[in-house]
């Protein structure tokens, strides 16, 4: 039985606004079937069969007027997305059509759904745990193919399966500890070596794996901030355009062309990169440029990765080394641009000049040797490691990571407690904390406000 909103039936347009092939109206709850029966006239009269698409018309029950020709699918509880009775109406995708059908549905007793409310019901009714609800969100927001793969794996229960195994192990250790609390004289024998070993193998190790996977995977999921900087006229905007594959930023031979921050994104071997082109930094000439330079400096401080573009049509210039120092750049990737204006000897002079840093040589305008730049960037971002841990096909998100780290800390304290022969009731406290941390991830012990925040990130109708 649903344990949530027993009497509420919710409805929403589940497809995005605007023109399209079809638009879907989704209704979930006790009244879904009755409402459908009142507004739907099947082409072949008869009962609505569950999980069958039925062809017919939506009719205004007030005056018998036909609103649209539709396909309707009724999914009887509990075999539906929310585990409640669900009706989905596939109508033509005009906004007037969809709004009219939706208002018929609400007029008959349904209320408008809040963002993510269908998925929230699926969670509250026990069809999916919280990690899978979050995976639905990641799936909708995936920006690269890798991000999509992670979401699908999490949706199929990658994270929750592992957590359930860890939880089961913790529960059986807890049972032993509880016995030990009752029979303190036999404590050592009851807890014994087996439980300490199973804590290491079945709790601590898998938790460490998940933490490592979450840390690595955050690059794929959340992407990185890349900022292009340098002195005026060196080819920063040309580089942005070359990387994103279109004329996004204005390029001219006038120094000081770019003033605003120009933001774009591109897919770097599966890593979503947000890239910002900035105003060339120099002693300011006018107030507008000055503001642009200030914004460039601020953005540089937030960057995960920095590409410093220098002008290869000129001789190496101390000003670029000063630039690195003045802007507190840790270890920028140096791109010597305008390769078409350089011979081998000049390249050697640049190499010597920037040594021990190793610059890459490119031509942004001609699009030459750009892979050298993107490969170097990719190596910096990933630290040379695979983004995927082959032994762990799932990637917990940041919220989950925080709880995993807490659970791991608590499990390590339990381990230390075993090793030092700490009293069983003290060990039990740490063990419970580990269990609570895991419950918070799967949704068993998650605070209401966290749930609300997660589901409010969804769109209406999902
Ligand atoms: N020869 C040559 N010229 C280039 C190359 N890349 C850019 N340029 C030229 O350099 C000039 C400046 O290019 P931009 O991309 O506007 O330079 P910027 O660094 O964004 O300049 P500001 O916005 O003024 O700071 C333009 O005339 C470009 O055509 C290149 O690879 N080779
Ligand atoms: Mg520019």
CATH homologous superfamily designation of the largest domain: P-loop containing nucleotide triphosphate hydrolases
Question: Distance between termini?
Answer: 21 Å
Q: So what's the overall shape?
A: flat
Tally the structural domains.
3
Helix content: 40-55%
CATH architecture of the largest domain: 3-Layer(aba) Sandwich
Q: Could you report the average pLDDT, rounded to the nearest whole number? A: 90
Beta-sheet strand percentage? 15-25%
Number of helices: 15
Which tags fit this structure?
16% strand, 48% helix, 15 helices, Rossmann fold, 462 residues, Gyrase A, domain 2, single chain, alpha/beta, binds guanosine-5'-triphosphate, binds magnesium ion, Four Helix Bundle (Hemerythrin (Met), subunit A)
Quick description:
The protein is α/β, with parallel strands linked by helices. It has three domains: 10-128, Probable tRNA modification gtpase trme, domain 1 (Gyrase A, domain 2), CATH 3.30.1360; 135-219 and 397-443, Up-down Bundle (Four Helix Bundle (Hemerythrin (Met), subunit A)), CATH 1.20.120; 223-382, 3-Layer(aba) Sandwich (Rossmann fold), CATH 3.40.50.300. It has helices at 32-39, 95-107, 117-124, 130-141, 145-155, 158-182, 187-222, 236-244, 287-302, 318-326, 344-354, 370-382, 398-420, 424-442, 448-456; strands at residues 10-13, 22-28, 40-42, 53-59, 66-75, 86-92, 111-112, 224-230, 262-268, 271-277, 305-311, 333-337, 360-361.
What does this structure look like?
The structure is a single chain. The protein has 462 residues and is of the alpha/beta class. The protein has three domains: 10-128, Probable tRNA modification gtpase trme, domain 1 (Gyrase A, domain 2); 135-219 and 397-443, Four Helix Bundle (Hemerythrin (Met), subunit A) (Up-down Bundle); 223-382, P-loop containing nucleotide triphosphate hydrolases (Rossmann fold), CATH 3.40.50.300. The chain has 15 helices and 13 strands. The chain has a seven-stranded mixed β-sheet. A six-stranded mixed β-sheet has the order 9-10-8-11-12-13, sandwiched between helices. Helix 10 (318-326) links the parallel strand 11 (305-311) and strand 12. The longest helix has 36 residues, at 187-222. The chain is flat and about 80 Å long. The structure holds guanosine-5'-triphosphate and magnesium ion (MG).
């Amino acid at each position: 039985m649903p344990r949530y909103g027993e009497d509420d039936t919710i409805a929403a347009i589940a497809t995005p606004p605007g023109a399209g092939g079809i638009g879907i109206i989704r209704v979930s709850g006790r009244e879904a079937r009755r409402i459908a029966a009142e507004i739907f006239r099947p082409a072949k009269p008869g009962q609505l069969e569950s999980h069958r698409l039925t062809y017919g018309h939506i009719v205004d029950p007030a005056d018998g007027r036909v609103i649209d020709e539709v396909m309707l699918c009724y999914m009887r509880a509990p075999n539906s997305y929310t585990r409640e009775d669900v009706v989905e109406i596939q109508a033509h995708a005009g906004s007037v059509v969809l709004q009219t059908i939706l208002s018929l549905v609400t007029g008959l007793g349904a209320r408008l759904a809040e963002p993510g409310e269908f998925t929230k019901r699926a969670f509250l009714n026990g069809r999916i745990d919280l990690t899978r609800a979050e995976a639905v969100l990641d799936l909708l927001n995936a920006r690269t193919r890798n991000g999509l793969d992670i979401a699908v794996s999490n949706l199929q229960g990658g994270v929750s399966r592992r957590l359930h195994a860890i939880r089961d192990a913790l529960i059986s250790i807890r049972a032993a500890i509880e016995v030990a609390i009752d029979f303190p004289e036999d404590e050592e024998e009851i807890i014994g070596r087996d439980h300490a070993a199973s804590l290491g193998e079945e709790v601590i190790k898998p938790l460490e794996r998940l933490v490592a996977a979450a840390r690595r995977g955050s690059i794929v999921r959340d992407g990185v901030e890349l900022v292009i900087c340098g002195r005026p006229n060196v080819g920063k905007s040309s580089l942005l355009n070359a990387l994103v594959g279109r004329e996004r930023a204005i390029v001219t031979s006038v120094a000081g062309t770019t003033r605003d921050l120009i933001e774009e994104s591109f897919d770097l071997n599966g890593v979503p990169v947000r890239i910002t082109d900035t105003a060339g930094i120099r002693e300011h000439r006018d107030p507008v440029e000055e503001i642009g330079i200030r914004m460039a400096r601020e953005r540089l401080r937030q960057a995960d990765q920095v590409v410093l573009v220098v002008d290869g049509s000129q001789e190496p210039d101390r000003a670029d080394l000063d630039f690195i120092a003045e802007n507190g750049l840790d270890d920028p990737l140096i791109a010597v641009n305008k390769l078409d204006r350089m011979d081998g000897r000049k390249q050697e002079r640049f190499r010597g000049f920037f040594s021990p840093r190793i610059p890459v040589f490119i031509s942004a305008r001609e699009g030459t040797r750009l892979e050298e730049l993107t490969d170097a960037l990719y190596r910096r971002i990933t630290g040379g490691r695979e983004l995927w841990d082959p032994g762990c096909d799932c990637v917990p998100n940041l919220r989950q990571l925080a709880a995993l780290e807490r659970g791991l800390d608590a499990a390590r304290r339990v381990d230390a407690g075993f090793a030092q022969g700490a009293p069983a009731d003290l060990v039990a406290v740490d063990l419970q904390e580990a269990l609570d941390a895991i419950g918070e991830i799967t949704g068993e012990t998650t605070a209401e406000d966290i749930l609300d925040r997660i589901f409010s990130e969804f769109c209406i109708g999902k």
